Amino acid sequence: MKNGSEKYIEAIKFLGELYDFLNRRFFADELEKPVNTVCPDGKNKAFGWFVCGEIWHEDGDEKGATEINVSAQFLNRPFADIAETMLHEMVHQYAYSNQMQDCSRGGCYHNKLYAKLAREHGLEVEKTDKTGWSETRLTVISREIVDEFATEHKFIYRLPERKGSRVRSSSTRKYECPICHMSVRATKQVRIVCADCDTLMVEEEL
Length: 206
Description:
Layout: H1 4-27, E1 35-39, E2 48-56, E3 65-71, H2 79-97, E4 103-104, E5 109-110, H3 112-120, E6 123-128, E7 132-138, H4 140-150, E8 173-176, E9 183-186, E10 193-194, E11 199-200, E12 202-204
Parallel strand pairs: 1-3
Antiparallel strand pairs: 2-3, 4-5, 6-7, 8-9, 8-12, 10-11
Helix pairs in contact: 1-2
């Protein structure tokens, strides 16, 4: 039985390997690898985030490293969702590395440039009123590419997505609030906020 520290180290190793794979397949290895971290989002809203700025420094190292975090409380989502989160944040890193302003309003509003970059790097994008072009999901082709990684890597927090088929057995998805456990169903992948708890609902396996 692994203890918490061992599980954390394994999760970081897995996310680092996932980053390398996505960097190779979607960015032609253009991005400089950041520090991958796992910590909870205090507001229980974000699946992950990219930190603008080289905040990680070693002694005597003038140039630091950026950071991509995956929120701890959402690590038990289906693997494809973890990969989508990582790819979403890597698009932010790409914009930052190329001196492009892809967000405004304190870094929360994803503008049209972000939407353009996301589409160029394997994501479908939808607009919301509060956060702009922030709703992303893997394209069909991107999902197939990501599946190549999933077949060769085991993630300790991963939930089974499909059994015996590469296609969902049902187009219906169930979303549940992690706090009050209120649930809803949708016919496509969406991001839904529980109005009572002000928290993103999490997709559950059917």
